[in-house]
Design brief:
The chain has 350 residues and is of the alpha/beta class. The chain has two domains: 193 residues, Medium-chain alcohol dehydrogenases, catalytic domain (Quinone Oxidoreductase, Chain A, domain 1, Alpha-Beta Complex), CATH 3.90.180; 132 residues, NAD(P)-binding Rossmann-like Domain (Rossmann fold), CATH 3.40.50.720. Helix content is 24%, strand content 27%. It is built from eleven helices and 17 strands. Strands 3, 4, 5, 8, 9, 16 and 17 form a seven-stranded mixed sheet that branches. A hairpin with a 6-residue loop joins β1 and β2. The protein starts with a strand and ends in a 7-residue tail after the last strand. The model has no long low-confidence stretch (mean pLDDT 96). NADP nicotinamide-adenine-dinucleotide phosphate (NAP) binds next to α1 and α5.
Length: 350
């Protein structure tokens, strides 16, 4: 027996997404069937549909910012019951045995995490994501959504939220720390909100001043345009931590010079090409360049609870699934304030 699922898929690289029906397996012992209500559109979905990272599998149902309601549970499930509000992020399984998995860092699983889509389940079945009406996931990889967080505005926390929460915690953003976020997009705007709630001084480095007013409302103390060369002169040696969320190439060396002694620049945006970095900017201030990938299940739950306590959710524009291709174009034009979220009820319209 299988579960019939409806969604939207790209049939091949760069092709527009269109209606697609497929099957998911019935819940095994520890699985949960989720009625998907909302799914955020992450820039990663666009990179993957475009096969920009060279590992895309088609047909592809993207989507890894999923919120919904538990519809059915497998016989041995203990953590959730029918009707619970839940979320699923970027992965749905991992080996559970390696050192990173044992340390609750499943995203760095040495065998590779099972990504929510564009991956393969441990039995070899291709995974398909959240631009669909149902998903079946092991309870250990499902998050609980706190009651005060709405399902639509919370969907982006499952990727965008945790992607910034994890490095902000790891590099100890907090009172007395000067943090810069490069790029005020989906993940960047979550970084501003979370860093502000952690008590850090927050600066946005955006390509223009168009989003300045929004940036300040989201919690930024300062806002600068990177198209203005004076920004770089003024901020040389200033930041303890810079998080780069830009999905395109930037001039890395120019930004490294903005770090203070022992400062760290964390790469979270993933453009196609390698990062060219000159040695001088690094050695001159004992600076570091580092990367960070989403967060583990335990930390993702911690982030949701932190957001619940601090009343943090994403700024969203809800769209029907029929508009997903237009939404992709608008993300590429930086014309989104600040995350598109698909209302999955729209799948019922024809
Ligand atoms: P997004 O909403 O499109 O935001 C990216 C932002 O980067 C834009 O809003 C824009 O901000 C800036 N930007 C875009 N093109 C630019 C250009 N040519 N030059 C300078 N700035 C530019 O994307 P997102 O969903 O936040 O994702 C951002 C990146 O993070 C993607 O590469 C995605 O794959 C990656 N990602 C990584 C992880 C991880 O775990 N490491 C997780 C999720 C996503 P301004 O208008 O403010 O300049
Ligand atoms: Zn994502
Ligand atoms: Zn593992």
């Amino acid at each position: 027996m299988t579960i019939q699922v409806h969604g939207y898929a790209a049939q091949q690289a760069k092709s527009p997404l269109g209606p697609y029906s497929f099957e998911r397996h019935e819940p095994c012992d520890y699985d949960i069937v989720i009625d998907i209500r909302y799914c955020g559109i992450c820039h990663t979905d666009i990179h993957q549909v475009g096969d920009e990272w060279g590992e895309s599998k088609f047909p592809m149902v993207p989507g890894h910012e999923i919120t919904g309601i538990v519809l059915q549970v497998g016989p041995r499930v203990t953590r959730y019951k029918v009707g619970d509000r839940v979320g699923v992020g970027c992965f749905i399984n991992s080996c559970r045995k390696c050192e990173p998995c044992r340390k609750n860092l499943e995203q760095y699983c040495t065998e590779g995490m099972t990504t929510t889509y564009n991956g393969t389940e441990r039995d070899g079945t291709p995974t398909q994501g959240g631009y669909s009406n149902k998903i079946v996931v092991d309870e250990n990889y499902v998050l609980s959504i706190p009651d005060n967080l709405p399902l639509d505005k919370t969907a982006p926390l499952l990727c965008a939220g945790i992607t910034l929460y994890s490095p902000l915690m790891h590099w100890k953003a907090g009172p007395g720390k000067k943090v810069a976020i490069i790029g005020l997009g989906g993940i960047g705007h979550m970084g501003v909100k979370i860093a502000h709630a952690l008590g850090a001084e927050v600066t946005v480095l955006s390509h223009s001043l168009k989003k300045q007013e929004d940036g300040k409302k989201l919690g930024a103390d300062y806002f600068y345009a990177t198209s203005d060369l004076k920004t770089f002169e003024k901020l040389t040696g200033y930041f303890d931590l810079i998080i780069n969320t830009v999905s395109a190439e930037i001039d890395w060396n120019q930004y490294l010079d903005l770090l203070a002694l022992d400062g760290t620049m964390v790469v979270v945006g993933i453009p196609e090409n390698k990062i060219p970095v000159g040695s001088f900017s690094l050695v001159a201030g004992r600076r570091s360049i580092a990367g960070s990938l989403i967060g583990g299940i335990k930390e993702t739950q911690e982030m949701l609870d932190f957001c619940s306590k601090n009343n943090i959710a994403s700024e969203i524009e809800v769209v029907p699934i029929q508009k997903v291709n237009d939404a992709y174009k608008r993300v590429l034009d930086s014309d989104v304030r600040y995350r598109f979220v698909i209302d999955m009820k729209s799948l019922e319209q024809h």
